[in-house]
Design a protein that fits this description.
The chain has 92 residues and is mainly alpha-helical. The chain contains 5 helices and no strands.
Length: 92
């Protein structure tokens, strides 16, 4: 029963996320590119740097950690938070 309750608790967020994804998919690609660039620019530099290295330059977590002299855990945390902030920006 507890497992089923946990699944039902997550349902509204999943539906909200799906609705947001559908709204974004209806926007012209050129508009999305501008908004994504603005979202990335709005990030604090430590999140922006990690996000760009991973998602644009396609570096691995280990490569980013080594180049920035950070732990893998720090890189993962910054990447996760940076992506969340971009999502939040895009949903405004």
């Amino acid at each position: 029963c507890l497992r089923l309750a946990k699944q039902h608790v997550g349902l509204p967020d999943d539906l909200s996320s799906l609705e947001n994804d559908l709204q974004l998919s209806k926007r012209p690609e050129s508009e999305l590119r501008i908004d994504i660039a603005a979202a990335i620019q709005s990030l604090p530099s430590h999140y922006r740097q990690v996000l760009i290295l991973r998602d644009v330059d396609e570096m691995t977590i280990s490569e980013i950690a080594q180049s920035l002299e950070l732990t893998r855990e720090t890189v993962k945390a910054r990447l996760h938070r940076g992506r969340a902030l971009v999502r939040e920006y895009m949903m405004r």
